Write the structure tokens for this entry.
Amino acid sequence: MTDQPFIFERYDFDAKKGILALHYRFKGGESFEEQIVFPQPIPSLPEDRLAALDRAFRLVFLLAGVSYYKARVPKDLICEAFPLDKKTADFVACVYREGLGEFSYRNEIDLSEKIQFKISEAQALASVPLSLPHRLLVPLGGGKDSIVGFEMLKQAGYSVALIAAGKSAEALPSPIQATMDVSGLPSLRIGRVLSKNILELNKAGVLNGHVPITAILSSIVVACAILYGYDAIVMSNEHSASAPNLKIGKTEINHQYSKSLAFEADFSDFVAKRISPDVKYFSILRPLTEAAIASRFAKLDKYHAVFRSCNTAFRQDEKARGKNWCCDCPKCRFVFLALAPFLDKPCLIKIFGKNLLDDKAQEQGFAELCGLASHKPFECVGEIEESALLMEKLYQNEAWKDDAVVKELGRRLTFAEKDFEKRYNALFALHSDHKVPEEFLRLLHA
């Protein structure tokens, strides 16, 4: 840690090369340059879209800084690139503080007195009305959720393009590239090149941990929507993304904060008021549970061989990326559990390469998912009750009930029969807390 402020030095966009360069430094210490590489050709834009694009670049600049700030977590943050108004500072500080919740817990750092932005008296820039074509950008993560989201839109006849970011536009993680290929949809590939300095510092042992990556990528997608002409960004974040992994007193720690409804509401409001009211941002899957999404994904069999949620497939080091499901992490366990009630058993085992639910070594991991040990894992997994209900459903299933993990945990989880059916069926009802526009809500009912 350091007492020296973190400085947002400047950002530059080279339209010919399509490169947005972001410059940061610790006062008297290390400096960093990150590059965002946009696909060519870069369109020639009218003045209103150029103005909105610059506002979006400012947001990218501010949010991407968290990847470097976390190395030293000083109290003060100073933006030299432009005057920072209070509402913008408050929004960014909230994203940092909530998005670094898991980071602060693991590193035993109290952030309550940190993340203090120096505020200017200047007025915030007004948002810019735009006339954008009614086209949808869908960020792609390589897992089942985004596939369910874009297929729903595609089948309804919307003009949809996929967008994903990788270490370079030419080297996207294989599950993302394979999903794009199977989808047949147009796509935008973004390169995000982290500063070499932060990678070296991480190896040297500076503070490190989870950052609100979805917030950073969402800001980049906003810039792409303005640059290439899309009026809506459709996320695929489900209901359970809002549930915390851990509560300490009144403090909630959510690994998925930047996928939560709270972030979605704040982010979409910021975009409307500070960038453009004509770029919409919402998650079409917000009313659905993971179980409901899994039941829909089970029918999309052309993606079963290419999708992957396992984090090993998305490591920064391309040489260290896994080529298959690792079958020994919370995400592998949860996706296996979520799909088991809806897929033929041999089919599911073929996807993963083994039966995770008949492996006694996996029992502790599944117990954590179901609330029988420790807390919900710090990963993108469903809610505890949801996992418990799915496990109990398998305990009642002739095909699964004698598998080692199901047999042990199902015995410990048994609900009263009447209560179980009511609670299990509720997993497939639409939740009312969401920001899905009425135009798209009908697709979920269908």
The two ends are 52 Å apart (CA to CA). The chain has a mean pLDDT of 92.
